[in-house]
Write a structure and sequence with these properties.
The chain is mainly alpha-helical. About 65% of the residues lie in helices and about 0% in strands. The chain has a single domain, classed as Ammonium transporter fold (Orthogonal Bundle).
Length: about 450
């Protein structure tokens, strides 16, 4: 039955692709206008898009090196498969839901952009007027790809592959797309409210972190919670790829090769470096040896925390954001370890809380001196309005992402079981789910 359902879906999508140009004729969309392109901006955005895409297999190595040897292939593939599944969804409907004409400030109308109609090389999004509209859409696709992949670390070593694919598909449409629309579309609720998210602290990391917590709770503990990393070298390689790709992740959000991109680039480096060193020092203070894995985790926490603030804060404040974030995340990693919540790779305390910390600190350190587009300064400069807005948005986004993700996990489990059997879990997901071994 499942085989025929999949065949039917493939045939239906193929037919829609074949006849889509006659079914959905081109129309004039608000926000798309005759552009004056800048070749430097186009070049930078093309490079940045490629840099962000390489973060997803980098994440696979980062996670894959942390799990047991019998689950390495499965863990890496859970990141890699997102590049296929989410790309197709994004072209068909995801981009329209995220950036289509606003419906109540919550979600976009996908009809004008179905199958990338009206998303071409001769028009431009009005917030990125110097690059082709399709380049903007493809770059945003890379964000949509890595977000559900981040979640996979929370329920690594115990999730069925088919269930995982269905869940990330639903998450992308029902959780990610509304958050992207609300935060980054000029008519979105969070955007109009004044919430700052330069490159995805709220949209990407908070949503993934809360979904990860929901997944860890829903799937319950592994039968054997042994922490036995298979390849520390994979973790180091993955961190290097993530750090490299993160320059595109943050600096491209300036939407061009300009001064703001340079500031975001510098802030990204500084915050991550401070957090990497900070995690190592924390290990030493606790009487442990400074570990390669700890330094790598710290670097990623710094990257996560600076993401929402990269284009709004000074370099000195970026350094402070990295240090504060690593203190908060390392503390919560220890707290989580004492609970029954089996977040396998600590996605929620690192990505979720790291993104949340960065979001709040953005409202503390944001300065018009760094980004003249700002109309409000952060709490450090004596203004409270922005910080209050971020606190309110933090609660709203957290509730939506956690409970929405938990509901999607419940629905997915009704359609196809999410948890592997105990026998398959003990055998390892590489062999039980994919018939392969290292």
């Amino acid at each position: 039955m499942r085989k025929w359902t999949l065949i039917f879906i493939l045939i239906a999508v193929s037919i829609l692709c074949l006849f889509s140009y006659s079914i959905f004729p081109e129309v004039q969309i608000k926000g798309v206008k005759a552009p004056i392109f800048d070749r430097a901006d186009i070049g930078w955005m093309l490079v940045a898009s490629a840099m962000v895409l390489i973060m997803t297999p980098g994440l696979g190595f980062f996670y894959g090196g942390m799990v047991r040897k019998k689950n390495v292939i499965s863990t890496i593939l859970q990141s890699f498969i997102a590049m296929g599944v989410i790309t197709v969804l994004w072209v068909i409907v995801g981009f329209g839901l995220s950036f289509g004409p606003s419906i109540g400030g919550i979600i976009g109308n996908p009809i004008p952009y179905l199958f990338f109609h009206n998303v071409g090389v001769k028009t431009a999004w009005h917030l990125a007027p110097t690059i082709p509209f399709v380049l903007f859409a493809v770059f945003q696709m890379k964000f949509a790809i890595i977000t559900p992949a981040l979640i996979s670390g929370a329920f690594a070593e115990r999730i069925r592959f088919w269930g995982y694919i269905l869940f990330i598909s639903l998450f992308s449409i029902i959780i990610y797309a509304p958050l992207a629309h609300m935060a980054w579309h000029p008519d979105g609720l969070l955007f109009k409210y004044g919430v700052l998210d330069f490159a995805g602290g709220t949209v990407v990391h908070m949503s993934a972190g809360w979904a990860a917590l929901a997944g860890a709770i829903f799937l319950k503990q592994r039968k054997d919670r042994v922490h036995d990393p298979s390849r520390i070298t994979y973790v180091i390689l993955g961190t290097a790829l993530l750090w490299f790709g993160w320059f595109g992740f943050n600096a491209r959000s300036a939407m061009g090769a300009n001064e703001l991109a340079v500031q975001a680039f510098v802030n990204t480096t500084v915050a991550s470096a401070a957090a990497a060193i900070g995690w190592g020092f924390i290990e030493k203070i606790k009487g442990r040896k400074i570990s390669a894995m700890g330094v790598c985790i710290g670097a990623v926490v710094g990257l996560v925390a600076i993401t929402p603030a990269a284009g709004f804060v000074s370099t000195a404040h970026a350094l402070l954001i990295g240090l504060i974030a690593v203190l908060v995340s390392s503390f919560l990693v220890d707290v989580r370890a004492k609970t029954n919540i089996d977040d396998t790779l600590d996605v929620s305390p690192c990505h979720g809380i790291g993104g949340l910390t960065g979001m709040l600190l953005t409202a503390v350190f944001a300065s018009p001196a760094v980004n003249p587009a700002l109309t409000e300064s952060g709490l450090l400069f004596g203004e409270t309005s922005l910080f209050i807005k971020h606190c309110i948005a933090m609660v709203g986004v957290s509730v939506f992402a956690f409970f929405g993700s938990y509901a999607l996990l419940f629905i997915t489990n009704l359609i196809t079981p999410l948890r592997v059997t105990e026998e398959y879990e003990m055998e390892g997901l590489d062999r039980s789910q994919h018939g392969e071994t290292l």
